[in-house]
Fold this sequence. Notes:
Layout: H1 3-18, H2 23-29, H3 35-55, E1 60-67, E2 73-79, H4 86-95, H5 102-118, E3 119-130, E4 135-144, H6 149-176, E5 198-208, E6 211-216, H7 236-248, E7 259-266, E8 269-274, E9 296-297, H8 303-309, H9 314-317, E10 322-323, H10 326-335, H11 339-351
Parallel strand pairs: 9-10
Antiparallel strand pairs: 1-2, 3-4, 5-6, 5-7, 7-8
Helix pairs in contact: 4-5, 5-6, 10-11
Amino acid sequence: MDAARLLELENIFIMLKNEGKSFEQIAKLLPSVNKNILKKWDNAYKNVTEAVRKNGSQQINTIITGKDVNGEYLYNNKFRFKIFDQLEAIKFELISTNFRNAQLESFRLEYLKYFEQYFKSISYKNYTYDPVLGEHDIELDCVLTSDDPMIRQKSNDASKFYFDYFLTPRMILQNKILITNLSKIYCKGNNFENILPYGIKQFKVENFHDIKNISIENLNIDAKWIFLTGENSFGKTTVLQSIALALSGEQILDFKKENFAIEYQAFNEGVILNYWDRAKFLFFKHLACYGASRLELQHDRSNNEIGEKSSLLYSLFHSDGVLLNIEIELYLWSIEKDIRFEETVALFKKLI
């Protein structure tokens, strides 16, 4: 077994350890790896984990995600935030947010001073939000340091500002989050030795064209192909469109009620993309999309038309997509001695 394959298998070993599987379970899932090698990996993983625990910060949670080609461990660092009471949380949000709108920004700075100077405590309770009607309500309790009527009025304005521009958008977003937690990893026949670098684990769609609600879970991440079968106009392309939108995050339609979420495995890390959680959205870079219609070659087209009709998702949503002519690119790369020429030629040779 060569070094590259051993590295692949050790990264799978690390992934399974992070899943909480025991040494004995992993030995069964990686039958081609000698047990002495597995023990070596296990000891190294324990030593590194212990070193990270001893040297780590209380504010940072460090997870081993794998090894690189040089045999160095890779880590994922996530901040732990201390638990604030509601008043501290409000002040923290107001301090760490900036509005592009000048008027809202002036309100933020003004009301922050009121929360800092005149509030002893504040409690938002019994929050309700109706996503259909767009109506929301809340019960508010607060203790102030002053009985001055003007200060009390300004303090009420400050509370309403936070409710309208911070709390309500967050509650609306929570109603749009379709996938919250990472799911378990599944492989057909527990054949973890053949998993791919990327694999879809689950996806969910709501109110998209004729799809009211669909949820497909527990997909095997070692599946090289996933087939959708059905009669014409049954919705296969719609499902593909929803997956593409969930992975890319592109807003190519005037979405109002539509919602998408997807979870995939990227090497040793699980990734969740909720379409409306724009602050946390990281689009999937390795995506190619093609629709059911036959694509036209790019010749006899204007550059603007080629650019528009050959974009990532265009042919999946339209019937007049343009297929880029790789011969032109290869010719240019060859003249410019671009490394992509040799890489692409090598890929074609491997393919055929």
